[in-house]
Amino acid sequence: MPTIYDFSVTKTSGERFPLYQYEGKPVLIVNTASKCKYTHQFDDMQKLYDRYKEQGLQIIGFPCNQFAEQEPGSSEEAESFCQINYGVKFPMFSKMDVNGEAAHPLYDFLKKSGPFAGFDESDVQAKLLKLMVADKAPEWLHGDAIKWNFTKFLIDTEGHVVKRFEPVDSIDEIQASIEQLL
């Protein structure tokens, strides 16, 4: 069975980075954007990283411009934005597509391993997200496609997807799932 360790990604420097370097550590993978209504989530992710990095947690970000062109700059600009505006110290990698024909193979794996659970119609934020996706990126509305920026995948210490979190999921829920892995 494949794991995230079977994939390599690209650092903002252009250097290839094999994900097997995270073997034995829990990893939170997130697609990001600097001009998104969810960009403030960098604060919460940095707090999680600060709290749990000594216990092995890794958080890795992948800027993506597929959702309303909310990451228009270069990979280096995205990384700099995160560091300057949110004090991000966890690794940010090169921009990549997460959906469609040009989607990075890592994201194809993540979507298959952590399928979309659907929109919680009883949650106002989830309803608003669904409306936004329907309006701005209807091609991603159905199936397991990443719906928007700041979708997160929690990976266990063996490289398997444990849980998928949508942009509207609470940081408390993410934290509780991380604590179960540590």
Automatic annotation (TrEMBL):
<feature type="active site">
    <location>
        <position position="36"/>
    </location>
</feature>
<keyword id="KW-0575">Peroxidase</keyword>
<feature type="domain" description="Thioredoxin">
    <location>
        <begin position="1"/>
        <end position="182"/>
    </location>
</feature>
<comment type="similarity">
    <text>Belongs to the glutathione peroxidase family.</text>
</comment>
<dbReference type="InterPro" id="IPR036249">
    <property type="entry name" value="Thioredoxin-like_sf"/>
</dbReference>
<dbReference type="Pfam" id="PF00255">
    <property type="entry name" value="GSHPx"/>
</dbReference>
<dbReference type="GO" id="GO:0004601">
    <property type="term" value="F:peroxidase activity"/>
</dbReference>
<dbReference type="InterPro" id="IPR013766">
    <property type="entry name" value="Thioredoxin_domain"/>
</dbReference>
<protein>
    <recommendedName>
        <fullName>Glutathione peroxidase</fullName>
    </recommendedName>
</protein>
<dbReference type="InterPro" id="IPR029760">
    <property type="entry name" value="GPX_CS"/>
</dbReference>
<keyword id="KW-0560">Oxidoreductase</keyword>
<dbReference type="GO" id="GO:0034599">
    <property type="term" value="P:cellular response to oxidative stress"/>
</dbReference>
<dbReference type="InterPro" id="IPR000889">
    <property type="entry name" value="Glutathione_peroxidase"/>
</dbReference>
